[in-house]
Q: What sequence folds into this?
């Protein structure tokens, strides 16, 4: 028998019953049925997780609106996982829907719980990626303590939000601006939730930085880290990066939702461009000892470095890579560089120059192009934070060679150790004025508790806050 004859023989052996399974329109008189397909097993996905519906910026940023996000870890009803739990009396635990997702109608209490959880979870995940995939402890996670952080999406009335180590909590308040009817919920702002989660992450990394006894610049680092967390969170999400590139024609200094922080909140207070603007030109000599303003000098310097590196990398990669992808990668690198520099900075009394120098040194050791360091030196110098190791003439004349990877300023050395510009600056010597900061910086625990105790990590109680008063009472009652 030839091979062809064998095939015919096999085809004839297809049972008649299978022929009858074909719908009539596919049956051809006299034709044999095709062999039955062998199903290919589907690999089971490695990642399980849940979908959440969230505002990608806040309710006023309609370009982005509400979107689904995928959280690739196991989340229990609450929402709760091993690090974060959500608290809203009479509402939580919020159960997952029939599909196992946390998808609810926008602005309902269930939606607020899901959104606030998802954004805190994503913020932690972003920094854990920069931490080599390892968990970052909260300030109280010492000696085997695994207590979660509790997140309160509707914690009461007020135009504020805060992180408290004593309460092990993030609390988001709501308010109705004067003369308006629409209530503004801070939990519906990705910027505000990421900012407060940033305070919690930084307090875990640097427990000594929140004490008011530090120089104003240390407080400025805390506020700036919160704002930069919101910016890097937005740029870690491909849809936001893509929308931003299209909106600004890939120019980070163009007006957009990225540098404008907490848009809805700012509008409620009558501010045109968010509560704060990261794309600012503030210098240290303009801000005194007011921590909120001082923070904007640091945030602005990092934002400018981000824009510089993006322009440089677009020049290098625009023919081989999508501009949104270049932006995501640049933001990721800069966020990790800042994260590593902060981890390597002093445990107490950290100054902007400390973080700048660690950024320069880590950048050099990991082999970044030399021009990255020139961008960092220039931006910190022009804001009067550090001395100018690279002449600022090219930057100030607008003739800086943005595409030269080796540019260090007319043959100058690639310096990785710069000095403070003005040791007598109020931002270093005065007391911290926190009156215009977010709720975190106003918490009594960071003013009242002994700085050394704060820096040691560990749990805090109300008695720690009232320590001095209680001591006085003890002495009085002992008489
Ligand atoms: Zn803050």
A:
């Amino acid at each position: 028998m030839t091979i062809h004859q064998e095939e015919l023989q096999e085809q004839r052996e297809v049972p008649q019953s299978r022929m009858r399974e074909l719908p009539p329109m596919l049956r051809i008189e006299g034709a044999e049925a095709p062999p039955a397909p062998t199903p290919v097993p589907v690999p089971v996905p490695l990642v399980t997780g849940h979908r959440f519906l969230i505002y990608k910026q806040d309710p006023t940023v309609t370009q982005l609106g509400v979107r689904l996000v995928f959280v690739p870890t196991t989340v229990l009803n609450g929402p709760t996982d091993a690090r974060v739990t959500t608290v809203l009396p009479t509402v939580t635990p919020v159960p997952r829907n029939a599909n196992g997702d946390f998808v609810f109608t926008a602005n309902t209490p269930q939606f607020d719980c899901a959104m606030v959880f998802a954004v805190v979870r994503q913020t932690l995940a972003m920094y854990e990626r920069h931490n080599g995939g390892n968990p970052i402890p909260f300030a109280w996670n010492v000696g085997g303590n695994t207590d979660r952080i509790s997140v309160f999406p509707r914690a009461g009335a007020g135009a504020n939000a805060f992180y408290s180590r004593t309460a092990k909590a993030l609390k988001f308040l709501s308010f109705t601006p004067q003369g308006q009817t629409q209530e503004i919920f801070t939990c519906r702002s990705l910027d505000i939730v990421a900012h407060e989660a940033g305070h919690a992450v930084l307090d875990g990394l640097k427990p000594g930085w929140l004490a008011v006894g530090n120089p104003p610049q240390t407080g400025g680092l805390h506020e700036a880290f919160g704002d930069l967390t919101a910016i890097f969170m937005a740029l870690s999400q491909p849809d936001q990066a893509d929308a931003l590139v299209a909106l600004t024609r890939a120019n980070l200094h163009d007006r957009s939702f990225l540098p404008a922080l907490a848009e809805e909140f700012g509008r409620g207070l009558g501010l045109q461009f968010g509560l704060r603007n990261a794309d600012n030109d503030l210098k240290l000599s303009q801000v005194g000892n007011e921590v909120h303003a001082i923070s904007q000098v640091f945030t602005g310097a990092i934002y400018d470095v981000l824009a510089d590196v993006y322009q440089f990398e677009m020049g290098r990669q625009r023919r081989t890579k999508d501009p949104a992808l270049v932006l995501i990668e640049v933001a990721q690198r800069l966020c990790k560089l800042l994260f590593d520099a902060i981890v390597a900075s002093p445990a107490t009394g950290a100054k902007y120059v400390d973080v700048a120098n660690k950024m320069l040194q880590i950048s050099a050791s990991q082999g970044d192009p030399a021009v990255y360091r020139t961008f960092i030196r220039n931006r910190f110098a022009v804001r009067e934070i550090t001395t100018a190791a690279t002449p600022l003439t090219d930057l100030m004349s607008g003739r800086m060679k943005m595409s030269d990877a080796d540019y260090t300023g007319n043959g100058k050395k690639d310096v990785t150790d710069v000095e403070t510009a003005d040791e007598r600056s109020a931002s270093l010597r005065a007391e911290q004025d926190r009156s215009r900061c977010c709720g975190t910086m106003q918490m009594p625990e960071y003013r009242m508790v002994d700085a050394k105790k704060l820096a040691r990590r560990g749990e805090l109680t109300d008695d720690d806050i009232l320590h001095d008063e209680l001591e006085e009472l003890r002495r009085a009652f002992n008489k």
About this structure: Residues 195, 199, 223, 226, 437-438, 440-441 surround zinc ion (CB under 6 Å). The chain has a mean pLDDT of 89. The longest helix spans residues 291-317. The chain is about 45% helix and 5% strand.
